[in-house]
Every structure is written in C-alpha cells, then in structure tokens.
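Most newcomers find our protein records easier to grasp once they have seen one. To make this concrete, we reproduce a full record directly below:

===
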Amino acid sequence: MKRIIVLGILLSLTMVDMINAQERLDEDRLAWFKDAKLGIFIHWGYYGVNGIGESWSMYHKRISYQDYMAQGIGFTAANYDPEAWAKLFKKVGARYAVMTTKHHDGVSLWDTEYSHLNVKEKTPARRDLVGPYVDALRSEGLKVGLYYSLCDWSHPDYEVVFPRPSTQNDYPQRGQKNLYPWERFVRFYQGQLKELSQRYQPDLYWFDGDWEKTSEQWRAKGLKDSLLAWSPGVIVNSRLKEEGDYKTPEQGVPVVRPQGPWEFCMTMNDNWGYYPSDTNYKPKAQIIRTFVEVIAEGGNLLLNIGPKPDGTIAPEQEERLLALGDWINKHNEAVFGTKAGLPQGHFFGPTLLSKDNSKIYLCLYGQPNNYINLKGIQNKVTGIKVVGTDQTLTFERNGGAAWNNIPGILRIEVPKKEHLDEYVTVLEVSLEGRLNLYRGHGNAVELND
C-alpha cells in the first residue's frame, strides 16, 4: 500500500513538472509576441481587382462564384516589391506581419501542390507570392505571420450556402475516392499547412474560419501538435478553437483588458482588402490613439493594409503607416520595453510601465488644463520629462496622510504648448525604487512583473 502511495506521489510530481515545463516552453514561444507592440496585417487577393468584399461577397450572393473567380485575370502582382514592403514595415516600428496565404475563397497565394486554384496557375502573377514575402521579412529581422483560412469555399468536399459549379478539377484527389468527403477535406487542409510549415517555417499562424466547424471536426488538438512539430516555436491565434496561444479581437478595442497575450486587429477604412470606393479612412489621430490604448492594456495592434492587385500599397494607407511610425520613433522609449500600465483610477488616460516598474508613462490626449493629476503613487518621484523633447516638468504633492500611508495627489506641470504632441503627448515619471501603489484604506501594493 505504501509503495502505491509513493508511486502516486511521484506520478503527481512528474505531472506537475511536465505541466510547469510546458508552461515555460509556451512562455518562451510567446516572448517575442508580448514585446512586439505593432504588426501589419495584409489582405491581398482577387477581391482587390473589382474592389469588393473579400470572399464574403460570394457568401452574401452579391457576386456569382464564376464572376468572383474571373477577377483572377486582373491579379497581376506586376509591381509586387516585398523588399519595399518589409523596409516600410520596419521603418514604422512593426515587429511582425501577417499575410493572407489563402482566404475563404480558396485561392492560394503560393504554388501549392494540393490545389490548382493558386496564383501561379490561375493568374498573370505566374509565381509563388508567399516565399518572397517571407524572405523579405526575415532580411529585415521581422517575424513572419501567415494567415490561413481553415474553411475553403471552393473545395468540392466543403459545403457552402451559395451556388457553386463543380470545382473537382481544381483539387487533385487521387487515391481518395473511398474516403468520406470530410476526411478528404481534412487531408487537404492539413496537407497545405504542412506544406506552408515545411517550406516557410513561419513564426505565427493566423487562422480564420474556425466558427464553421467544431474543434473535433477540425481536429484542432492534433493539428496544433503537428504545427509545433513542423515549425517548432510557432505561435497560433485564438481562431483554432481552444488551441490558440493568444486572443485576437477585431474592429472594436476591448473595454476590459483581456487576460493573457492578445492583439487587436483593425482596418484603416471599413474593408480588409483593397476597396478603392471605400474612402472612409480613419484619421491618423484615431489610429495613433488606438495604438496607444492597445499597448497600454498590454496588447499589440495588428494594423491592416489591402495592397492593390499589382502589389502596390495605396497612398492613403502608406501615409497612415508613416504617421504612426513617426509617432512611434519619437516615443520609442515609451513603446518598446514597456508593459501594460496602471490599474484604473490612478490617471485619467492610458499609461504604460517600464518592465522594471521604475517608470510610469502617462499618455495625454489633447491639451490639459491647469495641471496633470496622478494619484496613489507611494514612491518618491525623482523626475518627470516630456518624451521626445528636452522639457522637464515641475511637480508637487498635495494632501495625503503620511501616518496612514496615504500619498495624496501628485500635481504635475502642464507641458509647454510647443512640446505637446499633435496626437498623443507622453510624460515619463521616474520613481525611486519599484512602483508602490496606494489602493485605498491605507494599503500599499507593489505591482508584479
């Protein structure tokens, strides 16, 4: 009996060790992502030829399947310059990019062996477009993300809600006639992912379309294991059911800070792909403020562009990227090497903390009046400056009760008008020691890393 108990204890300890080891491996895989702050999302495909909704225009029967696919003749990639893309992304401060390798329409942007519906065989591009993108990003030291739609609305074994002619000839299925249709489809999509993994060794997979099937139907757990075997270290977004490594809300910044690693993906106008009639572009100020809001909550911004069918980036999109890049470069010290900021109630606006908790970065929207208010800081403040300028600011404490460990209010001088940033001004508050917060009732809280 004692031997059984001892074996049980040893087994439990072994299980705990295995779980802890896996958690450390997961932390290592995600380390770069947590520090990335900015990624570029790239929706590039047939839909940009006519400037229509990507894949969804078929789903909502706004265009026939035949007419949608006929756009392929205009997808030329004639001026595709992935090296210029990568240099631009690096210039604006991005640390990774994610490009659509296959959207729901089933069109592959690489010369896949699993489908004839690819840009090499069906379009004037006549070549693999994913490989040059991967090489260009790596040459600039950027992490490589590949978007892949799990669903495929062209595959003959995938059911769709819109009329579709036979597409059997586009999907080689030799030796698979005796398989169930879904089994054939699983072999197809997992075969494509193995192909992408072994050929390009991505750092990140951005899945989409998982809502159409269950985790069991997608065989999500087995797929995640395979992805890690094919590309050790790869991370996966939350659209592989429960197998994702990080959350990826889109188009509406979460009001409550998400738990764990996350990114917010957002379009510049109202569409993901190139859509020339959509001129409802977000102002530069909105994009920059959204970026600040997201990183202040510990996330990354995945900002979308939709290149034209020839591979060039629309001026309106490049202009906004460069504006964001100028702001990031000016405030580099407050963007990189920082983490999510103060809990609510200490400052009326976004904040960031240095990783060692010795500095607070206060983000000001607009021009403050009278003074800037910071509450609940127990530490001695050793200095305050306006990031990106040479101005230091005066400050003083008001109120508080030292006998009960209540620090009162830190009242900070308003920066000179010429030192206020056009979009978001950032103040660096330097502390003596690690941040110690007053949270009420005489309690002091030292924030953890």
About this structure: The chain is about 30% helix and 20% strand. Residues 76 and 125 are 5 Å apart (CA to CA). The first helix runs from residue 2 to 34.
